[in-house]
Each structure stands twice: as structure tokens, then as C-alpha cells.
Fold this sequence. Notes:
The structure is a single chain. The chain is mainly α. Helices cover 92% and strands 0% of the residues. It has one helix at 5-59.
Amino acid sequence: MYCCPADNLILSEAEAEAEAEAEAEAEAEAEAEAEAEAEAEAEAEAEAEAEARRASSKNG
């Protein structure tokens, strides 16, 4: 089957667009994951602080 160069160019552009979209999605996913990790870390820290306060009030 014959495919003219213009068709190849259009296909290449579509492939590049799809690749860019996939990269952007992966980046957004990684960002969301990092945010979730930071949130969990902050939550654990707050919980540890609250526990330390409870322990010191029991001992104090």
C-alpha cells in the first residue's frame, strides 16, 4: 500500500501528540502521588505530636 509523505507526517504528528499526552499524564500521576505521600507524612507527624502531648500530659 502506498502512503504519501504527507500522510506519514500527519501520523508522526499524531504519535508525537499521543506521546506528549502520555508523558503529561504520567507527570500528573507522579505529582499526585508525591502530594499524597507528603499528606500522609504530615498526618503521621501530627499524630506523633498529638501522642507526645498526651504522653507528656499523663506524666506531667
